[in-house]
Structure formats: structure tokens, C-alpha cells
């Protein structure tokens, strides 16, 4: 699936781009996923003490206290690469692989939205649900992206030709940094996982849409990805009524 000719668009929001990105390596004959090196840990016998009691259950942790916790980039990369390779062996083509990654991302997105809603309700501030489209897209651009990837997306754009299409731009998607796409799978976009996350959040907020991911590389940003959001007709009709 390629997206070499994006629709003309009007930029709604743009952040400063990052200075360096990793490039695709099209020379590999099979999909390879590189795990960033981690510093070695040297220990001597007897230096590590066994736990004195039972290990705490992860489900007993306070969700508000873990909101600033970070996941190792190496661990995330390794896990995601294993998911892609496991799925790749069980599909018949690129479209099927992207569809399954989208389905996986949808499951994650529904849980991310539930967690964000719970934290907003339990905080001192009064929780707020966005009922207009652009503020809802801003929530995804900033809060959802930070919750999943630790950073905000780079821009939100609206299609000039099609009123039902919006785009979220990420110049350096974290899940694409350590992926080498082979020549025979040049149209593959592993950001279909992110598209699934976005689709789940939009559905949960009451803005049903079909979301897909497309590689739109530039000279400065070889891994640049566009998340294309195609809204259902009912969303546009409601937006007209709320004006």
C-alpha cells in the first residue's frame, strides 16, 4: 500500500521537526528488526540478593503513580519486531499483514483511551470529553501520542479536496526507527499499528472513521508517515449542526 500522492492539504498544526532520523534499508531480502544495543551488566556471585518476599502483582500498582513510567526502547523494539515477524509468517501478503497490525493497534488504542479517561476522572481536574472534531484530533496528536510513544506527533492537516479526510503527520515514528523493509515489501507500513490505535480512540470518542497508514518520505525525513483519517458521513453532519 503506497501513498505517494497525498491530497492537497491545509496544515492545522505543525511542530518543529527533529534533526535526525534513521533511514530504511531496502537491501535486505527479509524483514529485519534491529534492537538498539544496551550496556552490559557485570555482576559477581553473591552480589545479587534474592527477593525477601513475594513479588508485587502488576495489577496492584497504582495507575496514577505509573503514568510517568517509561518502557525501555530496546524492550519495545524487540517485542514489536517479534509481533511483526510472528504475524508475517501467518499472512499471504502485505495487505493482510497491515490489516492484522491495525487490528492489534485497535485493541491497544481502546485500552489507552480507557486508561486516559480513568486518570482524568481520578485527578483533581474535572474530566472533559471533546465533542468537536478538531479538539478531539488535538487530543490524539498530543496526549495519545505521548501516552503511547512518549512524544507528540508533528502535524495535523486537513485535505483540501475531501472534507472528510484529515491527516496526522509523524516525521520520525518510533516503531519505524529500527525496521528494514525488504525490496519485495516496499509498500509495507508497520505504522498500521498506529493507525489502529487512532481508529480505536476516534471510535471511543464518538468520531467513527477508517484510519490507514502511508509512508510519505522526504529527503529530510525518510521515515515520515501519514496517518490518513477518513471520517464517516455522520461525523460531518454532526459538525455542521454544532456550528
From TrEMBL:
Where are the annotated segments for Disordered?
Answer: 1-57
| Annotated signal peptide | none
Q: Where are the transmembrane segments?
A: none
Q: Which keywords label this protein? A: Endoplasmic reticulum, ER-Golgi transport, Golgi apparatus, Transport
Q: Where is the composition biased (Low complexity)?
A: 10-30
InterPro entries, per database record: NO_sig/Golgi_transp_ligand-bd, TRAPP-I_su5, TRAPP_component
Q: Which CDD domains match?
A: TRAPPC5_Trs31 (cd14943)
Keyword Endoplasmic reticulum present in the record's keywords: the answer is yes
- Where does the UniProt annotation locate this protein? Endoplasmic reticulum; Golgi apparatus, cis-Golgi network
Entry superkingdom: Eukaryota
GO BP annotations of the record are:
endoplasmic reticulum to Golgi vesicle-mediated transport
Which one Pfam family would you cite for this protein? TRAPP
Q: Which residue spans adopt a coiled-coil conformation according to this UniProt entry?
A: none
Cellular component terms, GO, for this chain's entry?
endoplasmic reticulum; TRAPPI protein complex; TRAPPII protein complex; TRAPPIII protein complex
Supply the SUPFAM superfamilies for this chain.
Answer: Ligand-binding domain in the NO signalling and Golgi transport
Which PANTHER family does the annotation name? 41-2 PROTEIN ANTIGEN-RELATED, TRAFFICKING PROTEIN PARTICLE COMPLEX SUBUNIT 5
Quaternary structure and partners: Part of the multisubunit TRAPP (transport protein particle) complex.
Query: What's the family?
Result: Belongs to the TRAPP small subunits family. BET3 subfamily.
Q: What is this protein called?
A: Trafficking protein particle complex subunit
**Species this protein is from:** Agaricus bisporus var. burnettii (strain JB137-S8 / ATCC MYA-4627 / FGSC 10392) (White button mushroom)
Q: What is the lineage of its organism?
A: Eukaryota, Fungi, Dikarya, Basidiomycota, Agaricomycotina
